[in-house]
Amino acid sequence: MKEQHADDHRHVRPPPGRAIVFRGVFRHCLTNKPLARRFHKLCQLWRMRCRMKTRDTERRAHRRELAALKSTRPRILLADDQHDQRLALADLLIRCGMAVDLAAGGEAAIGRVLDAEERGSAYDLALIDCNMPHCDGFEATRAIRIAGYPPTVLPIIGILDQPDHREKLLVFSAEMQGALIRPVTLEALVPLLNRWLPHRILAQDDPQPVAS
Q: Which residues form the Response regulatory domain (predicted)?
């Protein structure tokens, strides 16, 4: 018994030097079953803590990336008096990575453009329905141009339902930069965004479905 006690005491007694002390304690933990279980438990907890820290760091980095992406997304104004059509086109724009503001009429679209300029967050592109009551897309576009927003500052695209020759002429006489024909598809929308948003290059297969 004395010899065994002496051996145990010799294992516990820290020899000189930090590395040697660590090896002695480590060996003692492995040879003593209760201590070994505690030691392994501590190791597991430490590994879990390290993994949690790594995940937290990754989540913070992901949030920073999303915030940066949101701040640099092109801002689109979409004006349409038809609620369902407005939401359907907004969904396509969001799938293309755009930040979308909605207006339910021509007068509302004019107000949105003026308010955005005052807030220092001007729009990069406007999509305006040409067949709205009270103030249609042509009238809204003329008012926006008169207010001091030329095509080089704010390109405007008209939205039409199977236009005739007269409506096509009105698109250009109102200083619109083009037209989208309903039903609007990604195949028609993506090239238009590429043309009028040169800093936002998209491929036909880039847009991703919005998670429900």
A: 75-197
